[in-house]
User: What shape does this take?
Amino acid sequence: MRRVDQIAKALNDVGSLDEYNGEMFRAIVENVVVRNTYTLDFHLKAGMVESITVTRK
Assistant: This one.
């Protein structure tokens, strides 16, 4: 459960990532569902779902 907490924190703290790590992404993400134009649901292999809303600048 501690690892799940670490993964959730990393997802919520996107600023800590310097670059995309495809290997890490594939290791923790089962699939991504595009809910609408601005919302993505990340289904994690640990059974959690993290949603993000994309905004335009």
Observations:
- The CA atoms of residues 6 and 12 lie 10 Å apart.
- The chain has two helices and three strands.
